[in-house]
Amino acid sequence: MIVSSPMTILCIALAMLVIACSAPVEPLLSDERDGVAIFGFSPGAELRQQDDAHLAGDLAAMAEIGAAWVRLDVDWSVVEAERGRYDWSANDRLVDAAIAADLDVLGMLAYTPAWARPPGTDDKHPPIDDEGFAEFAAAAVARYGPSGVRAWEVWNEPNSALFWSTGPDPAGYGRLLRATAAAIRSADPDATIVSGGLAPGLDRPDDGWLSPETFLDELVRAGALVDVDAVGVHPYSYPARPFDPDSAAWNTFLRLPALYELIAETGAGPTCLWITEYGAPTGDHDRAVSESEQAAMLVESLDAADRWPWLGPILLYAMRDFRQAPDDLEWNFGILRVDGTPKRAWHELLARRTERTGTDGAAPPLDVEQQPEATLAGGPDCRAGGHRGATS
User: Fold this and answer.
1) Is the bond preceding residue 239 a cis peptide, omega within 30 degrees?
2) Does this model's pTM top 0.70?
3) pLDDT tens digits for 335-388?
4) Would you list the domain boundaries of the chain?
5) CB 262 within 8 A of CB 22
6) CATH fold for the domain made of 39-359+367-376
7) Which residues contact 138 (CB under 8 A, 6 or more apart)?
8) In the chain, which residue ranges form alpha helices assigned H by DSSP?
9) Contact, 350 vs 65, CB < 8 A?
């Protein structure tokens, strides 16, 4: 991936486990929004490259189709490139623009400046000192909490060597997560803390990859999630749809109920899953999908979340294609093309919002035969999200 963009899924035959979910608890966040799935966008670090006019336009377009959230990178390697000197200017612009568009912000804290990692490594190397990263996180919360940023994600895809360059290390990430969670709580006791969104796929430790199940299980066993409110996951399923039965061997979206069961059965720590990235690329690549198929996949994921109360916000990657490169998967996840013209998904999401306008917010019926049994199971109601400053 490129900072926040999705990876190609590793497809290796493995049986899928789907488990019904239970243990109702209080919702994580609540406000005046309806009880159906809350969604938003994870536009990636490329958002920083937009001028003010295009930035405001894209954020307004998100709100227009009903988005409630935007995930913004808060990159330590950019903010504190020189030790002890913070430059918040790039993030100030993004946060101010998001708030002006009436979007809740999930701040994604990640990546290591050169002075805080071994020589010759890149920014995806974990910090030498966990407390240094935690101190940066506390500074970010102190800066943006008063503006209404109340939700924070700690790192991005730590189960992949592409974003945790020493190779997946649940124990090492768990130490970083606990130190950072404590620092966030000290700055904002009511903040919502989300663990780093886990990359999809199956176990390939020799290739620097652990499945979400394996990584999460080790975090649970180590007690690393006790201070976390939600577990982040990136259940990309392309080119398959979220509930394509032929993809059961590798489809992370299909395994979301099993992931929820894994955390719910502990009786402590997080009670919700947040999808902090999900999407599908269009274009000419052999793993890309058509624009109509992209639209169907996004709508299906949101409709499924209507029936999974333990699932928090779904953040779609991405709002806009950032380059004119139809043969490159990484640059074609947008629901808008590079020139801002809408793909089919834009129209479908707008129609989905229109259907709910002036109604009681009830979700449309699903084809239950194509959904896991756990779709209709009980659990916490994590679907009420935001608005800024609202907590349970």
Assistant:
1) yes
2) yes
3) 999 999 999 999 999 999 888 764 444 444 444 344 444 433 445 668 654 544
4) 39-359+367-376
5) no
6) TIM Barrel (3.20.20)
7) 183, 184, 186, 187
8) 52-64, 76-79, 89-100, 130-144, 170-187, 212-221, 256-264, 291-306, 344-356
9) yes
